[in-house]
Structure to design on (229 residues):
């Protein structure tokens, strides 16, 4: 069984603060993929990152960074120097290797206050 | 432009009146899927298709049907909608290569209200 937990339902930060969104997953598969998607107020789902379970290197893309720790089954997402445009719902998702099916967490609503 | 399109974007209907939500992609993707999004529950998979004429149930398939007669289209059918199917529906597509899981491209969503 696959399960993704995003314990933070809502987070509010003031612009320029750093914020970390937590994601903890459960799977019996030895190989899998992890994803983050952003859903801005307009409603569409925007792909942010895909990470293979074999690759535990952290990744940085501009103000975004991801910390993958297999030992704690976590794949956390940090936004540095947050901006109002970062306000959105963020979803973490898991896909077992060999299948494209995505198992989503319940999402974290981030509000960045100007 | 590579995209997934859904129609209609908004629909209000009544209990028991059959409806179809269309989904089409122009990226020649083998894999297509339907999700519903409900507050506090995230997105849950309804049905998916690995290729033409191949469909399978996701986590919440009850009350839904799908078909995949062409690679580009994957309609979602509600034969007798009920109020608990009021939700935001997303169609998605991706490549399908054995052993890999790919980024899924999502449509804009269809907001369905069943009265």
């Amino acid at each position: 069984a696959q399960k993704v937990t995003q314990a933070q339902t809502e987070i509010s930060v003031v612009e320029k603060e750093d914020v970390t969104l937590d994601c903890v997953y459960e799977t019996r598969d030895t190989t899998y993929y992890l994803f983050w998607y952003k859903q801005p107020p307009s409603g569409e789902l925007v792909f942010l990152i895909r990470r293979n379970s074999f690759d535990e290197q952290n990744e940085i893309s501009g103000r975004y960074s991801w910390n993958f720790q297999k030992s704690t089954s976590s794949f956390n997402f940090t936004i540095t120097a947050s901006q109002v445009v970062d306000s959105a719902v963020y979803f973490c998702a898991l896909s077992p290797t060999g299948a494209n099916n995505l198992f989503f967490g319940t999402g974290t609503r981030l509000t960045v206050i100007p | 432009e590579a995209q997934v399109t859904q129609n209609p974007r908004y629909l209000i209907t009544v209990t028991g009146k059959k409806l179809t939500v269309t989904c089409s992609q122009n990226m020649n993707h083998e894999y297509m899927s339907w999700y519903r999004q409900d507050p506090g529950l995230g997105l849950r998979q309804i049905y998916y298709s690995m290729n033409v004429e191949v469909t399978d149930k996701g986590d919440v398939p009850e009350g839904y049907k799908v078909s995949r007669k062409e690679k580009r289209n994957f309609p979602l059918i509600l034969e007798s909608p009920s109020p608990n199917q009021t939700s935001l529906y997303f169609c998605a597509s991706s490549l399908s290569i054995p052993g890999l899981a790919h980024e899924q491209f999502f449509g804009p969503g269809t907001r369905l209200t069943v009265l």
Summary: The radius of gyration of chain B is 13 Å. The mean pLDDT of chain B is 94. Chain B has no helices and eleven strands.
